[in-house]
Amino acid sequence: MNNKPIGLFDSGVGGLSILLEIKEKLPKESFVFLADQAHNPYGAKSPKRLKDLSERIVRFLLKSDIKLLVIACNTATCYTLAHLRSKFKIPIIGVVPALKPAVSLSKNARIVIMSTPATAKSAYLKDLVLRYAESSRVLRLGCDGLQDAIEYLKKNEIDRLLDIYVAKIEKFGADVIVLGCTHFPFVKDEIRKRIGSKARIIDSGAAIARRVKVSLGKEHLYASKKLPDRYFTTADPKVFSQISLILLKDKIIAKKINI
């Protein structure tokens, strides 16, 4: 047994969608969550800058004696996972689009991956498509502006952008939509309203929670009792707490830190 917390980080509130899935799977575990909102969006950063930010975040989380790290951000995973694994000895799990199950689910071999533009153009995602979906037609749809709109719950902007991107999905004819950004599960219902029964919508949250459970079991790191979760942001903690309350339906008190 090991009651040390699990660390997670994202550029903002999107990683909370991953945290929810892990909490449901592992209710006795404790968590330290960091939202690097001062440097949001990560998609606008160079790979070098992302590696530097991520490394500093991990060093901060290690001060809380975390036993496992989840990079709860698709963009950060694409550009920093290998780097962080080479720097730190703790188990590190990244979030990648659920492409493999999408291939199994698709009936017409047409799949759309909704992500940030940075993830869409990454070599990591290109390699993922080549490995798992070579026989499928895959549209890597970089949804410019959508992450930021969700980050600050700009409803009108969310609606406007979803109208644009869902129209592109319909034109492409995909029957499976992969949510390749951890912010996007928070608007899954809005996407479903637009696409109807034409396509299934999947994300990586449940799969990441299963991977965390397997990793903890393999290392004999399961917790025996729940300790208080802690939340940090590099921007305004009041804003983070207000938005988190809406997204999670739960009150969160966050602290501001600098990295």
Verbal overview:
The chain has about 260 residues and is α/β, with parallel strands linked by helices. The chain has 2 domains: about 5-95 and about 205-255, Rossmann fold (3-Layer(aba) Sandwich), CATH 3.40.50.1860; about 100-205, Rossmann fold (3-Layer(aba) Sandwich), CATH 3.40.50. Helices cover about 45% and strands about 15% of the residues. The chain is built from 11 helices and 10 strands. The strands form 2 sheets. The chain has a 6-stranded parallel sheet, sandwiched between helices. A 4-stranded parallel sheet has the order 6-5-7-8, sandwiched between helices. α2 packs across α3 and α8 (about 155-170) crosses α9. The radius of gyration is 18 Å and the shape is globular. The relative contact order is 0.20.
